[in-house]
Amino acid sequence: MTTRSARRWPPAQIALTAVAATLSLIWLAPLAWALSTSLKSPTESVTSPHWIPEHVTLDSWKEVLKAGDIPNWFVNSVVVSVCVTVIVLLVASLAGYGFARTEFRGKGALMGLTMAGLMFSPAILGVPLFTTVQSLGMVDTYWGMILPQCAPAAKVYILYKFFQGLPRELEEAAFIDGAGRWRIFFTIVLPLSKPSLSAVGIFTFIASWNNFLWPYMVTNNPDLMTMPNGIATVQNAFGIVWPQLMAGGLIAGLPLIIVFVFFQSQIVRGVAHTGLAGQ
Amino acid sequence: MSSTALTTAGRTARPRTGAGADSARLRWSRRLQHGGWFVAPFLVLYGLFVILPVVRGLYLSFTDANISGDHSGFVGLANYREALRDPLVWDSLWHSTQFTLYVVPLIVLVALLMALIAHHTTHFKWLWRLCFFAPFLLPSAVVGNLWWWLFQPTNGMVNHVLGLDTPWLTQKSTAMLAVVVATLWWTVGFSFLLYLAALQNIPQHLYEAAELDGANALQRMLYITVPNLRSITGLVVALQVLASLQVFDQAVVMYQFGPGPEETTRTFVQYTLEQGFTTYRVGYASAISFVLFVIVAAVALARMWLLKGREEATR
Amino acid sequence: MGQPGLNRRHFLGAAGGLVTAASLGFAALGSGADALASGTRTRVRYWNLFQGGDGANQVAMVDAFRRTHPGTAVKDSTLTWGGPYYTKLAMAAAGNRAPDLAVMHQGRVPGFAPGRLLDPWDTGLLAEYGVREADFNPVLWKRGVVDGELYALPLDIHVQLCFYRKDVCRRAGLLDSAGRLPAATSTDDWFAVLKEARKQLKKGQQTLGLHANDQNFCWWFFVAFYQQLGGTYFDAAQTDLTFDTDKATRVLEFFRKHVTDGYVTPGETDAEAFLAGSPFTWEGNWSVPYFTGEKVDFGAQPLPPVFGTPATHAESHSFVLPHQAGRGGPADEGAYRLAAYMVTHATTWALGGHIPAYLPTFQDPGYRELAPQNEYSRPAMDHQANEPHIWFAGSTGILAQRLGPVIASSNLGSTAPGKAARRMKNLLERLLAAKNPMTGRTAAQELKGAAA
Lengths: 279, 315, 452
Hints:
The structure holds 3 protein chains of 3 kinds. Chain A is an all-alpha fold. Helix content of chain A is 74%, strand content 0%. In chain A, helix 5 crosses helix 9 (153-165) and helix 10 packs antiparallel against helix 11. The model of chain A has no long low-confidence stretch (mean pLDDT 88). By secondary structure, chain B is mainly α. Chain B has one domain: MetI-like (MetI-like fold, Orthogonal Bundle), CATH 1.10.3720. Chain B is built from 15 helices and no strands. Chain B is globular and about 75 Å long. The model of chain B is unreliable at 1-18 (pLDDT under 50). By secondary structure, chain C is of the alpha+beta class. Chain C folds into 2 domains: 40-157 and 316-373, Periplasmic binding protein-like II (D-Maltodextrin-Binding Protein, domain 2), CATH 3.40.190; 159-314 and 385-451, Periplasmic binding protein-like II (D-Maltodextrin-Binding Protein, domain 2, 3-Layer(aba) Sandwich). Chain C starts with a helix and ends with a helix. The interface between A and B is large, with 110 and 110 residues.
């Protein structure tokens, strides 16, 4: 009995686990503090810092949900992230397949142009991007938020590499069976690409849900803001109320964390997949 | 996955024999001519929202255009000349660089440490993964608000835990450090997962062989783990440098869109947006945007060049 | 797995499909959930930057308006005060998605491209809602007029004040027989007051809240004391600088002395320190309801006239119509109704410490009895120090953004006062030579153009 547990828990392993636990606690502490703050009254939150609320109250959560803006922004975030994810998956898989498997005039040049796109971002070219979207009349619209997030050179590149690695024989066989190239794409290639597509999809969704800079630039109307943007730029008329700020932040952050708890292995694989593709 | 693919293939593929299959293959590849339709939707979006802004930005950088789009005239190189003399361009560029210099090594070290720990522990792996990665899933605005609160001098968690009364966010000596700490906490999880995946990809037999040769744990680490992580470290560093030079979100939220104490946390992206949207000088903002673009492009190209060099060396 | 797994997959698939369809539909529809919910009533979108006590009063006023005007739905949005607010407002107006009504500091109007980012008020229509020029302080009304058109309808004047705790000052023997603090008329006087008050404090408490590292407060306080010395910025034609670095140095040395003599702790949260027993703090009048609410016995008066001539920094909140291509219709009329209501029902607003711009309210006995408003409103109104009337000025404008940090760095000792004053002069010189990006003209050219 003792020997067996000693084998499972050698001293080195115990030490390592202790380090891991400490580090995890440090990493969780800010979130725990946010949760604790959100359960305090505004006055308690600014009187001598302490971890456990003396009087646990859900007032801040209720206030935040009742005030109207945050539920509204939540809907906007869902609308924008879902649209971006769907469009990106469609557009990037088509383009990745097109570059990997088809021939057309100027393919090499267009591929090069797409690769160059990896160097641009709204952070760098925000001002010209804004004036472009402005001239298209899309400032303060959903599409103005969505479409500029739907030209992802990096995602095209990842799927391009994936499609290149698929065995050609399958498609050829289907073609001999008389299938057209669109049918081949949708009925054979896409089902085979589920792992890659879900990795790209997960990442697109996270990036879009958390995207701050572009929605910040293109939306001014608080009706249309997404969660991150609204939280940062629209203030409670009653001043900084830390418990409400934390409750709002947790509402914005929790959905993805909950999703992560349930789909941990897929997401981890997704990170490795998309990240390592750039290696 | 690949085994499913093979069985599906076996089921759908008819036996292919002789010339019939060859000519079919020929027709197949011919059918793929004009595959441009696959790429067209992407190219339209890419053209509208990447190429057009670049071209437009380049044009604007030679004008004195304002945010409302009127009264714009061609001014030649005046914006670029002004940028070279503008101390705030250099200050903000330095702040972004400074941030990068602090944050990248920290992320690499902490991510590697976390990955080694998570890789070598035998229990609760999922828990470490969850704890280290969870902050990455938060929006930057939430991270900014959260650390704004945590760094409050009298009621914040940081001073409470450390037993200090440091005014982190209002003195210039700690202002940037605060942003670095928040960023490390927030983003290290991504690099951690990359390292973890790379560790899991190192063939186990290398370690077994080394152990047979009598190498101790430290030697195995130095001679097997470290060399095998070189290429992933290159990737982590490159990704982090490119992202850090473009830092904006968490810094502005922590300092309520201001420049920080004595203007010590104004990042370069922030300055371009201030010029464009606070001072309304779209032309000038476009010009200084290209300064950052050139730097980012140089870093990206340098990495490609390094990778190519390494590939040739290993060949 | 088998059957349940399949069911779950079906369920997830259906749910995902529904969310996707709903999202695409929503995006196609193009308006936020709240706009849809407000239905067919006239919806006035009103933006402001009022937080804290001001925010509460403003919400109370809007609510009162809603009760008396049930046909008008007001969607009020409070954006982050200062720079970010004006950024959002300018971008919305430039993108032709502006709100129907917005609040703006009057000093920002010249730089906000009246005519392009702002639409003028129709004074005839305003009169229909009971707002007439005759009911306003003429200087204040005129400051909102550009090229003969009214762009900024004034709501208030707000000033920087010296708040003092009566309990601490009484113990220090600083109050007169009426229980008020006599105004210090020289720097020596002022520091003597601080010295006496400090004797009453616990260790670690600061004597004065100076916002030493806040660029906006730094700039506002500078404007006040620089004017006390009779300092000016530009000549009348706005072609040449008249900035006096000697006077500026005196002001900066005055500020700096508070820090070196230990009366001010940089980085302290000044308002909270005041509530905790610190005797003095320099704050905007908007802190009046905050301190009143916390049951502190305090007084408030204009910043001390330590350089002889009284003057304290003053700005004004006003209502503007951000540019909309097709301004008019029910939402526009709703904006007029709301603005007129707020301006003429400013008693609630005056509780926030602001001095009402609407004279009937200002002269109302009810207002005159408010304390501590009655201690400061008259003298502050008569001795205003305004920022120069130029395109780069105004609350949290370019001037404050550029010069404020220089003053802060002098306060904190990073830059010597004399050097900081010279740096301020250089910055002013460059701003004066710079073209207003909205018009493509320098300040001098704009002035000449307006005169022609």
